[in-house]
Design a protein that fits this description.
single chain, alpha/beta, FAD/NAD(P)-binding domain, Enolase-like, domain 1, 10 helices, 25 strands, 24% helix, globular, binds flavin-adenine dinucleotide
Length: 411
């Protein structure tokens, strides 16, 4: 059966990219993006960085202007996909209408995990996921005196760096023993710990929140898990996300912390793919199925699905990479460092130009580079070709990833 009518649930990074790639590669059928956020699809990374700092406006976040969608015959519906009828191949929308599909791409992303704490409903408590969140938060930053950040993950620390740069006193509370521990080596966590403290951020590790305190409906402070009271006129939480996989679950698709997909990103229904933050997939770069919350993953998975729908099926095997900007630090990560048992350092934490090469059982699995973009670009090439670099080689005086990459480049 030909695929003439593609419906995409979710108009974020992955949903937009699959539509754009389909058109770019010559798909002539119907494409409809159903997205529950208003406006044209936009990128999220600047929301916790340049946009909050006032360095870029909302227009700069849009992937394409509205005319692009008209010119490329990509229909956009501001609606929510409420239900999938797999037998009839129809999606029911929250507005009450329905849409038939030949192929459905679920790109519904993830949503913030909201802390289950007394006071979370107070004015001044924010998550940061959408443009609407950033627009609500942004005008407050100039006026806050005391910001509390719950969670020292990427988004919490990006916000902390922005708020500190804008003059607020910032207190970060993190239950774990080091920042960004889920994704980073100890050496890199240590570099960011020192950097945040040097920017005036208080980083309270092994400490959580008991309650958020307020007066007249507004946040005034917090009570920490060890009983201290801290003043706060703003609280931002960044304690992880939950995949928006209920749609798939309701349709009887296989779901396990995200929608389970096969090597080609197909769900357990051959007429439905899932991509981006919501997809749980296996990767040659990881030991177990995972979800990745990154721009690279959303874009590359979208391209992989578009190619399959155009008759060029291939397994999804892209190398994962990610970045975060905090203060003057740009951290770029290539590969997945989980389970590493040995590291080799290039550069120095003192100069804040450091790369951490992460090895597992003697094999290079990831490279984290702070303010060393050349290392990052070289690492991406090296990791993509099953590296034979040993820890001993990397530890030799004068070793450089760029030179190693050039010397081992296939002819
Ligand atoms: C503040 C912030 C900063 C980030 N910074 C970085 C960074 O520096 N580097 C990096 O690599 N990544 C970063 N990310 C992560 C990156 O933005 C995400 O991985 C990426 O947006 C995932 O794309 P997606 O399309 O899967 O999900 P999303 O972009 O979240 O899009 C999903 C869309 O689907 C909509 N939706 C959900 N359910 C339905 C439904 N039933 N019907 C219709 N629509 C629905 C959602 O509202 C949303 O609009 C950041 C994310 C955030 C929030």
């Amino acid at each position: 059966m030909p695929t003439d009518n593609i419906v995409i649930a979710g108009g974020g990074q992955a949903g937009f990219q699959v539509a754009a790639s389909l058109r770019q590669e010559g798909f002539a059928g119907r494409i409809t993006i159903v997205g529950d956020e208003p406006g044209v699809p936009y990128q999220r990374p600047p929301l916790s960085k340049a946009y909050l700092l006032g360095k870029v406006g909302a227009h700069a976040l849009r992937f394409r202007p509205p005319e692009y969608f008209e010119e490329h015959c990509i229909d956009r519906l501001h609606d929510r996909v409420a239900m999938i009828d797999r037998d009839a191949r129809i999606v029911q929308l929250a507005s009450g209408s329905s849409l038939p599909y030949d192929h459905l791409v679920i790109a519904t992303g993830a949503r913030n995990r909201v802390p289950a704490l007394p006071g979370v409903e107070l004015d001044g408590v924010f998550g940061l996921r959408t443009l609407a969140d950033a627009d609500a938060l942004s005008p407050r930053i100039a006026h806050i005196r005391h910001a509390v950040v719950l969670g020292a993950g990427f988004i919490g620390l990006e916000f902390a760096a922005v708020a500190a740069a804008r003059g607020a006193s910032v207190h970060v509370l993190e239950l774990g023993t080091r920042p960004m521990a889920r994704a980073l080596s100890e050496n890199m966590s240590a570099l960011f710990t020192v950097a945040h403290r040097s920017w005036g951020v208080t980083l309270d590790l092994s400490c959580g929140l008991q309650r958020i305190l307020g007066q007249d409906g507004k946040v005034t402070g917090v009570q920490t898990s060890d009983g201290r009271h801290l003043p706060a006129d703003l609280l931002v939480y960044g304690i992880g996300v939950l995949p928006n996989d209920e749609l798939a679950q309701g349709a009887g698709l296989q779901v396990r912390d995200g929608i389970c997909v096969d090597a080609q990103l197909l769900t357990s229904d051959p007429n439905i793919s899932a991509i981006g933050d919501v997809a749980s997939f296996s990767s040659p770069y990881a030991e177990r199925p995972m979800r990745l919350e990154s721009v690279q993953n959303a874009i590359d998975q979208a391209k992989c699905v578009a190619a399959r729908l155009l008759g060029r099926p291939a397994a999804y095997e892209a190398l994962p990479w990610f970045w975060t900007d905090q203060g003057e630090l740009k951290l770029q990560i290539a590969g997945i460092s989980e389970g590493h048992d040995e590291t080799v350092l290039l550069g120095s934490a003192d100069t804040r130009q450091l790369s951490v090469l992460c090895f597992r059982a003697g094999r290079l699995i990831a490279v984290e580079s702070a303010n060393r973009p050349i290392d990052h670009m070289s690492a991406r090439k090296i990791l993509a070709r099953a590296p034979r670099l040993t820890p001993a080689q990397a530890a030799e005086p004068g070793f450089e990833l760029k030179a190693y990459e050039a010397a081992t480049r296939p002819a």
